[in-house]
UniProtKB/TrEMBL annotation:
InterPro entries: FKTN/MNN4/W02B3.4-1, W02B3_4_N. It is found in: Membrane. Its main location: membrane. Pfam families: W02B3_4_N. It is a single-pass membrane protein. This is W02B3.4-like N-terminal domain-containing protein. It comes from the Eukaryota. The keyword Transmembrane helix applies. Keywords: Membrane, Transmembrane, Transmembrane helix. GO terms for cellular component: membrane. Residues 16-130 form the W02B3.4-like N-terminal domain. It comes from Caenorhabditis remanei.
């Protein structure tokens, strides 16, 4: 359970180390998942732990479930499945939970302690599993119903290979996590996951969103380094307004991945809060895609990889795609600025477009 992180590693104090060593004499390796204990370890306050009266929550591989009768009653044991074909640990609790399996730990006795504690606590906060629908979809024809003579002028980007593209998406997720960024599925990628448990076969790119307050400009700088597995293809907008970055993997199929910032907004007429992502046309026209307050604090499986999603997926797809979201519409017919939840949002000036807003990169 180790992965390189650029985030600060928790230094375990001597007091905490002794306390953890005392409780870490377990019959098999265990993972400390107790939120209260981890916060105390993070703050170096283990001298206050002797009075802990509630059972300490730990994770144990289901392979050791046969030893369940030997556990000390001071522990509350959560068994998990560690499937080598998946990149997450699958906790079979009353409400199923999944968390990424690659995170740095330190072993004290038989106890594995996450060492980037804030990130691990976020994993656990977002762990509630949401299933996809796995619907069988009748595919829409790529032919235009109106103005069919325009068909030959439409640029036809190749559909992306689903499994390889999802592996790229997971690699990008991992690079973001190194900078404390928690991306979640968005747009057509989110629709494909919820509706079909896979990538929509005619789609030509993938979509992620990030809360604007969670963005880290150091990650964008990292994308230009040799260490990054991705290169920047395009950057639109500005960090505080309609920001969007498109990246391509450096190896394998060049699946375009669009990264959108999701901003906070308020309707001052109604007093209602909302979230929005931006879109920018080549002439500087800005668009705003409006969502209700977003809750990307649940987890999903997309072809064996964990991604974070809204906990209310049907509400979100209905808002964006309408009540017939289960009806396929070919990607060739998709008009990006004609969604149900989009409104105009002003315009960037010519100078802004030239200097800051619209950047395409060649390599």
């Amino acid at each position: 359970m180790n992965d390189e992180s650029l985030l600060e590693t928790t230094r375990i104090s001597d007091t905490c180390r002794l306390w953890l060593l005392d409780i870490g004499q377990t019959p098999v390796p265990t993972l400390l998942i107790d939120r209260h204990i981890l916060k105390q370890v993070e703050n170096g306050r283990c001298d206050q732990m002797d009075g802990v009266r509630t059972a300490i929550q730990i994770g144990v591989d289901v392979e050791f479930q046969w030893k369940s009768d030997s556990w000390d009653k001071k522990f509350e044991v959560f068994f998990y499945v560690n499937d080598t074909e998946k990149d997450y640990l699958d906790f079979r609790t009353e409400r199923r939970k999944i968390i990424p399996k690659n995170f740095p730990t330190q072993r004290i006795g038989n106890l594995l302690i996450p060492t980037v504690i804030p990130i691990f606590l976020e994993f656990w906060h977002r762990a509630n599993y949401v299933p996809c629908r796995n619907m069988t979809i009748k595919r829409d024809s790529p032919r235009l119903e109106t103005f069919p003579f325009l068909q030959k002028y439409i640029l036809k980007d190749p559909p992306i290979p689903p499994r390889e593209s999802v592996r790229h998406l997971a690699a990008l997720r991992d690079q973001m996590l190194r900078f404390g960024i928690f991306p979640f599925l968005n747009g057509g990628t989110f629709l494909g996951w919820f509706r079909e448990c896979t990538v929509i076969p005619h789609t030509t790119d993938m979509d992620l969103a990030i809360f604007s307050e969670n963005w880290n400009t150091e990650f964008f700088e990292f994308l230009w380094s040799k260490q990054s597995k991705f290169r920047v293809k395009r950057q639109l907008g500005m960090v505080n307004d309609s920001y969007e970055v498109t990246v391509l993997p450096k190896t394998g199929f060049p699946t375009p991945i669009d990264i959108f910032l999701l901003y906070e907004g308020r309707n001052y007429t109604t007093g209602a809060d909302y979230r929005w992502v931006g879109g920018t046309a080549i002439d500087g026209q800005k668009y705003k895609y409006i969502y209700p307050p977003y809750d990307p604090y649940c987890s999903a499986d997309l072809l064996g990889h964990i991604f974070w999603v809204t906990c209310t997926p049907e509400v979100k797809v209905t808002l964006e795609y309408g009540t017939r979201w289960y009806t396929d519409r070919n990607s060739l017919k998709y008009v990006w600025n004609a969604a149900r939840n989009v409104v105009r949002n002003g315009r960037f000036s010519e100078k802004q477009m030239r200097d800051d807003v619209y950047n395409e990169y060649r390599f």
